[in-house]
Amino acid sequence: MSRFDSVLVANRGEIAVRVIRSARAAGYRTIAVYSDADAGAPHVAAADDAVRIGPAPVKASYLDGERILEAARRVGAGAIHPGYGFLSENAGFAAACNEAGLVFIGPSPEAIDLMGNKAAAKRRMLDAGVPCIPGFQEAAADDEALLAAAGAVGYPLMVKAAAGGGGRGMRLVEAPEALAGAITAARSEAENAFGSGELILERALLAARHVEVQVFGDEHGNHIHLGERDCSVQRRHQKVVEEAPCPVMTPALRRTMGEAAVAAARSIAYVGAGTVEFLLDSDGSFYFLEMNTRLQVEHPVTEAVTGLDLVALQLAVAEGGVLPIGQEAVDLRGHAIEVRLYAEDTANGFLPATGTATAWVPPTGAGIRVDHGLAPGQTVTPFYDPMVAKVIASGPDRPTALRRLRRALEGTVLFGLPSNRTFLLQVLRDPVFAAGEATTTFIDERFPGGSGAPVLEDEHLCCAALLQYLEALADSEDLRVSDDATCAGWTGPRIIGSCRRYERDGEHVDVRLRQLAQDSFLATLGERELVLELHEAPAEGCLRLSVDGLQATVPYAFTGPGEVSLQWRGEAAVLTDVLAARAAGQAVTGDGSVTAPMHGNLLRLLVAVGDSVSAGDELAVVEAMKMEHRLQAAVDGTVSAVHASVGEQVSAGAVLIEIATAD
Predict the structure, then answer these.
(1) How far apart are CA 582 and CA 657, in angstroms?
(2) Residues 146, 184 contacting (CB under 8 angstroms)
(3) Which CATH architecture group holds 209-446?
(4) Has residue 597 got a pLDDT over 80?
(5) pLDDT attached to residue 598
(6) Which CATH number fits domain 134-203: 3.30.1490.20, 1.10.260.40, 3.40.50.1820, 3.40.630.30?
(7) 499 Cβ neighbours under 8 A, 6+ residues apart
(8) Threshold 0.90, pTM exceeds
(9) Can you give the C-alpha Rg of the chain in angstroms?
(10) For 6-105, CATH number?
(11) pLDDT (tens digit, 9 = 90+) per residue, 527-565?
(12) How far apart are CA 595 and CA 468, in angstroms?
């Protein structure tokens, strides 16, 4: 028996938090490791102890096995859980743990090494009688051998890196003339990513489903499967949405596919949690793809339908115990769907994004689970994978789980950096996905141009204008020197107004906002007028607002100069008041925008549209706190717009005058 009472989690982010949670619940002392970039991360705070392992780059921290082992020695850890990614499928690291007297919570180094090479793994699976895709998987095949074998494999085909995964070193080839270039590109990418340029060829099944089976084994020769997950919705061979069970699975097919997965695990004496991945063709045929010798990102959907804690099972098996459940006791109930929330710029080719999570409010509700390692104010850096959270919804059936997940995503708040939240909602609302008909070509077919741009409704612009008005008003009141209403300029029945300018569909839209009463406003956009009414806010960072009688909660955050991020009825928008952004909060700016320094009364207006002005010319006088504030031009030019009139109450930061320069 391999007894231990403490677990070091050699990972970061949401998976580290998730492993720590189960390990602590089981009574183990938990140890986190962290790089300099993660010193204040949630996984560090979640553990009993935490050890610094180096600077931010992964090669000097999370991928440095010796630093991890030194951290374990330093705190007397008994076992290491690798999570997924980083060192989780590194046979050398698993062996080093064993040599150091530490329990590696995962399979043997030999199993990792064998299944980590697609060519060797496929040869072993063929020997074990597991169905495999027709292909060519000779060891160390050179370019000439691959080119010669391609004809027998048939087109379209996939060129794949024998080592690694995640879609890297993989190319789809539809015609012979494209093969040589694909081999060169895949080999180069594989060498850079995995240190091995070994390649294999496989027949491409273009409209198949990607279905994987969760397996478990123990040191006593017991092996079971825990049902399947459908991971067909992928972008560039990386999973976006996962669900359990597969929408087209039948009991007979599950039994056959499960038996094949168990045979694969048994053939290598597999211990711990693993996943056997298959392609499922439309005729019910299935073929082995690869085996992941670790816990999967998408394991929560299996936990939801089985009621099992897979990390707790990993810990039990790692201690040398017998699997506490047999195949006959595995009972799949209900349905679960997971989406991966990434910090990425969906409008720019889904490039990974960085930034600070100004606001982060994960959803809650019946059947909702969120695995994350993010905190409000935390910076998402360029050093690590951009996935910030997983949102999982479960229910008694697929329609309920899908409905809950849509609502959960609509209520998810992540401001301050780009994310794929809107794209995920577009996927979940797509009728093909809703019908359970998505295959691995789903995203390419349904979203050929990538994510559609969010639609900016008039309500988004009105909410932004109101939020920025209220922010400016609050800033102005913070500067007051007296509570006397006369000093603040609030006496009399005057209507307070401001003008904001936003960009929509490449055009500027002016929103004129007038305060009618304490909680009542009138917004004018061109010919349209909307009445806005404030209600009691349900929480910090939210407004409760009626727009023409339609009441909703509006989460928001101010995320830059003149910029506000908000959600109106679940649809997000990032809006910048181009006038205020140029002014950058200054009463007079060098680009021709002249703003009110604080809330007050426009006492005098000395220019009109069309007037020529020079830098230093007096343009207007604002009275506030019984003082006169004289506004001057900072540039030479022509007055192009005037947004207020004499006697009008203006808010702090509101653009009053615009000057067009000769440039």
Answers:
(1) 12
(2) no
(3) 2-Layer Sandwich (3.30)
(4) no
(5) 66
(6) 3.30.1490.20
(7) 510, 511, 512, 513, 579, 643, 644, 654, 655
(8) no
(9) 30
(10) 3.40.50.20
(11) 999 999 999 999 999 999 999 999 999 999 999 889 999
(12) 13
List the end-to-end C-alpha distance of the chain, in Å, as a whole number.
79
Residue 248 CA to chain centroid, in angstroms?
28
pLDDT 10s digits, 440-467: 999 999 998 888 778 899 999 999 999 9
Q: Are 2 and 318 in contact (CB under 8 A)?
A: yes
Write the DSSP string, 205-233: -TT-EEEEEEEEE-TTS-EEEEEEEEEEE
Contact by Cβ (8 Å): 509, 524: no
Residue 156: asked if its preceding bond is cis (omega within 30°), the reply is: yes
Q: What count of residues does the chain have? A: 663
d(CA 236, CA 249): 25
Q: Are strands 528-535 and 571-576 parallel, antiparallel or unpaired?
A: unpaired
CA distance 92 to 81: 15
Record the tokens describing residue 516, joined without a space. Answer: 């009618």
The Cα–Cα gap between 203 and 230 comes to 21
Per-domain residue ranges of the chain: 6-105, 134-203, 209-446, 454-663
3-state secondary structure of 581: helix
3-state helix, strand, coil in the chain (%, to 5): 30, 35, 35
What distance in Å separates the CA atoms of residue 454 and residue 468, rounded to the nearest whole number?
Answer: 21
Domain at 454-663: CATH code: 2.40.50.100
> For tokens 């004496």, what's the residue?
269
Query: How confident is the model at residue 540, as a pLDDT?
Result: 92
- How does 16-38 read in b/e, with b if 16+ C-beta sit within 10 Å? bbbbbebbeeeebbbbbbbbebb
Phi, psi at residue 540, to the nearest 5°? -65, 140
The angle, 0 to 180 degrees and rounded to 10, between the axes of the packed helices 118-127 and 251-267 is 110
| Amino acid identity at 507 | E
Please say if the pLDDT value at position 66 is more than 90. Answer: yes
Phi, psi of 155, deg, nearest 5: -110, 150
